[in-house]
């Protein structure tokens, strides 16, 4: 009779399958978010048209790495986070998930905001025109055309944060590490003892065979030794 507290095999299999799906979806979300951040760092974000007061009339193109200098480092940290989630245990998975939520929030903050007020945009304009000072540079900005990459990088930060939050909430349902390593650690002492016994038997050499004593006695007689030395006197 089956115990009422014992889960059915079908339910256990379904729970394991659900845990694997949650783990895969979470890790994929973090990887996609980090990928969007890395890709956005290399793309053009803003095209700034300057006013007539600028020495040059050519528009200034600002890339993602210039507009958000911390984007590349945060995106690389997101990739490392995905790897950590893939191999972490239950407790470590919780800690990594909390770190990932903070990381996603930092990435969102880094890519959001008014382009005209971004230090990277002002730096690019100052480099192109040779004019320094926040007030003077702001006066040169006529129009800012934004591409889709700032929004995509923002989505990447949200994905990292949501994926990490999902790891915190559902991490206990994920499958653990491979049992092969547990079996290896449990059987390590036994295998070590077997290897030690085998090495000891090899050093001792093969067991003596019947008839070896007679051969040894003959060898001692050949060398001039008495093979009966050490025997009982009555036997001699």
What does this structure look like?
It is a single chain. The chain has 236 residues and is mostly helical. Helices cover 65% and strands 7% of the residues. It has nine helices and three strands, in the order αββαααααβααα. It has a three-stranded antiparallel β-sheet with strand order 2-1-3. Helix 1 runs antiparallel to helix 3, helix 1 packs antiparallel against helix 7 and helix 4 packs antiparallel against helix 7. The protein is elongated, with a radius of gyration of 37 Å.
What is the strand and helix layout of this fold?
Blueprint: H1 9-41, E1 44-50, E2 60-63, H2 64-67, H3 71-87, H4 90-111, H5 119-129, H6 134-140, E3 141-146, H7 149-170, H8 179-204, H9 212-222
Antiparallel strand pairs: 1-2, 1-3
């Amino acid at each position: 009779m089956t115990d009422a507290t014992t889960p059915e095999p079908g339910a256990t299999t379904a729970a394991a399958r659900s845990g694997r799906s949650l783990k895969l979806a979470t890790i994929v979300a973090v990887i996609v978010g980090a990928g969007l951040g890395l890709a956005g760092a290399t793309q053009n974000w803003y095209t700034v048209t300057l006013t007539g007061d600028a020495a040059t009339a050519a528009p200034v193109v600002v890339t993602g790495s210039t507009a958000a200098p911390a984007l590349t480092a945060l995106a690389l940290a997101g990739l490392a986070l995905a790897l950590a989630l893939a191999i972490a245990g239950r407790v470590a998975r919780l800690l990594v998930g909390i770190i990932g939520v903070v990381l996603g929030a930092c990435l969102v903050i880094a890519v959001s905001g008014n382009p005209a007020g971004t230090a990277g945009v002002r730096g690019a304009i100052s480099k192109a025109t040779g004019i320094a000072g926040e007030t003077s540079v702001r006066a040169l900005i006529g129009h800012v055309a934004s591409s889709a990459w700032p929004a995509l990088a923002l989505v990447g930060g949200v994905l990292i944060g949501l994926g990490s939050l999902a790891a915190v909430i559902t991490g206990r349902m994920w499958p653990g590490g491979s049992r092969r390593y547990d079996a290896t650690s449990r059987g390590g002492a036994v295998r070590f003892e077997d290897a030690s016994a085998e090495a000891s038997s090899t050093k001792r050499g093969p067991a003596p065979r019947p008839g070896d004593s007679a051969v040894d006695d003959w060898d001692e007689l050949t060398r001039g030794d008495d093979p009966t030395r050490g025997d009982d006197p009555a036997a001699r």
